[in-house]
Amino acid sequence: MSFLSDAPLELGALVASVQSPERGGVASFVGVVRDHHDGRRVMRLDYLAYGPMAEAECARIVSETEARWPVVVSLRHRVGSLEIGESAIVAVAASAHREAAFEACRYVVEEVKRRVPIWKREYYADGTVAWVDPTQIGRPMPVGSA
Amino acid sequence: MGTAPSSTIAVRVLLFASYAERMGLDSLDVRLPAPATVGSVLERVRSLPGGRDLPLRPLCALNLAHASLDQAVSAGDELAVLPPMAGG
Question: Which of A51, A70, A93, B55 has the highest local Cβ count within 10 Å?
Answer without folding.
Answer: A93
